[in-house]
Amino acid sequence: MAAALLLLGVCLALAPSQAVARSYHDFLCEIPYGPRAGSAAPTDDVSYSDVGAYSQGGSSCEDGNGAMMTRMDGEVEHPANGSGEYATFTAPAGLSIAGFTLWHYEQVGNTVPYGSPVATIDYGNGSGFTPVEFCDWEGGCSAVTQSSHLATANELSRSNLSGMTYIEWSAVCADTAPGTCPTGPNTEEDVYAADIDLVDETPPTVSNVGGPLVAGGTLSGTQRVSFSASDGQSGVYGGSLVVDGHAVVSQILDSNGGACESLNLTKDGQRSFDHAKPCVSSLSAGLSLNTGSLASGQHSLELIVEDAAGNQTIAYNGTITIAGSSQGGVGAGAGVAIGPGSPAAVRGAPNGTNASDQAKLIAQWKGTAKVTRTSRYGQADPKVTRTSRYGQADRITGRLTTSTGQSISGALLDVSETPADQGAKTVPIAGVRTGATGAWTLTLPKDTPSSALRFAYRSHVDDTVPVATTALTLRVHAGIALRIAPRVTSVGHRILFTGVLHGTPIPEEGKQLVLEARSGAGEWIQFNTIRTDAEGRYRASYRFKFPGPVTYQFRVLSRFESGFPFLDGASNVVDVHEH
Questions:
Q1: Residues 231 and 332 in one domain
Q2: pTM of the shown model
Q3: Which of 117, 244, 288, 513 could disulfide-link to 187, CB 3.0 to 4.6 Å?
């Protein structure tokens, strides 16, 4: 199968068409194969819900030896008709589940008429579900080995699925009300590790292909092609330049903090990741080709962009001409400053209708958030700063005209960001094209950090010197997700705090967070400081020392500190009742 897929990939690389749907693997909690077996994997795409009191759910996978837990406390009775804890892995939008292998543990409590604790696993979609495992007192449980998480006895697989979008496991009280499940052993369905095969049926979309490599003319030296790509399913993975049927350049376009780098650990030869959506949804990028390594004359050239699942789009298919001798050339690839005043022969086509070396570029925030007037870094002229929150898709609008007010339409603008962190590098984040009136709109990715944003217009496509620039500043409050289990407790018992601090980069040593609590409308009181791991996940617990009844509110704070380009932020508030 692996050889067949490889051959198919080569054939597709040579044909001016889009590839058929592919799939890839996502690992959860514990990596099950290869030299990294047993190491931790994120569990971002698993959600937990509790129905009724005295049920617990959450992840303890951070150390690579935990579980994605659902548990119904055996110390108390539970009402029938589905009360308990549920955990659900949901495929990201546009993806489906072709198969899975779970390594799990299960046990059940005592049963009585009209009250039977059960541990279950099922999969399905919005139209229905299929049971995979049903563990109760009478039928027994198949996976009962806790000492070795990845033991064969704990393994459960399904394959050749179609259109499935979720996998769910639960520990609940079955039968019907008014029955109850009695006290006894805990009821659990815990998943130690998961290998989920995800299908992506949509190839990436590529636009704005340009640059000296594909602009025509005779080439020498190192030349570059630029483009924009988007894929809302598995994300944009890599780009390749294929010359005369051979891939001479192939690279990952954006590693997404390492999430978009394949782990190469699966048995079927497909890519594997530890995130369900491993790669960024959109990007602007470029690939460079050293034409000096090619013989003089004409060569076929293809630009291929692919997503994480391996779906490919041939974004350019044409012919390039290589000079008789490679002398470093001129243009963007040769490191020569090209712009107003440069010879016409080394400048590319005009960038837009009414392209001009005397241009005016305006950018402003769309709508009204908090705005302040401030100064551009290193310059005296003012600009607008927006204060936003993590997860908000901020919009920017603007207009490009000549110095006399004539609209420049169809022009590609460069957009880059410099995160508000000492030593952060400026990176391109998008390309945007002006409309008929020179107007343009850009929606920033929801995970954009506090940044200095720069917009530039180059009047010719091969120019390295822009003729108009402007800038904005974005300040973003940190985003934090908090879960607490259980939500009802008593003196002497613990509650577990789990969650994630969103945004990158997280410092290697983790980011410090503050735990706060209050009762009623009282003031927030800090009672602990904790630290995330390098991926932003955190875990803590608290044991109640004084009896209730009282309802407490808890939250987690992130304070601004160097190394994390976000302002102060607070999590959602979670209520816990102590009886």
A1: yes
A2: 0.54
A3: 117
